[in-house]
Amino acid sequence: MYLTIAVSTVEKNLDRSLEIFDEDFIKNRDLDLLIICQGDFLENSFEVVDGINVYYQSERGLSKSRNLAIEKSKGKYIWFLDDDVFISKEFVFKFISEKKYEQDLIFGRIKCSNAELMYKKYSRKRLKRHDMLKVSSIEIIANKDFIIKRNVKFDVNLGLGATFPSGEENVFLLDCYNHSPVITDLIDVIVYHPCFENKRTPKKLWALKGYPESKKIIATKLGGPFGVAYLLKTTFKALKNDVSFKCLKRMLMHRVR
Hints:
The chain is α/β, with parallel strands linked by helices and about 260 residues long. Helix content is about 35%, strand content about 20%. It has a 9-stranded mixed beta sheet with strand order 3-4-2-1-5-8-7-9-6.
């Protein structure tokens, strides 16, 4: 198989996750369709639902979900998705039909699923170390051999459901970058995601337990002048969005182990 599409979800959203894949996806032999469903299960288990491989995971945390997806994937490439997206069929079938990629990391672009807008600003190619902070997890298509041979995994202390609920994709990509990956940053829209969500406002994000500390972890992983610049830029943006000094203090005083 050429491409594993791995969706991370929780038990209450399983039906929505299954709807991401239609018959065209299910019938294509170049696609490995995989859902990691976390919930209050007595034990980890597996079943095939409508042609889709579903792994039930009793552990919690987005990074644990992503790591299990890597372990169970069968494709040359693995694409990490959430359960609230819509996939560009045009991109997927072009990707698997051409089979022209030999890169270690491939990034695509996100468009709003509920508006005629891009999900975020794309100004230039994301190829340098500090650019790894500008890539969302659902934009990442990774060469499985590259990450397996170098033992790159998602940090289970980061991401939704973990101690620090942010930054898991940034640290994952920075760890990949330490091994000099060949990167392609496509201009193609590969996935659609809802925009204008109230839960994503800066003040609400910074109020989450562990969120400020995750920023310090990212800065430390980035390291050097770029790490310092990241902290300064993050502080400035937080102040601009009326984030409390208490939250900023949590970020700046956190000791990264």
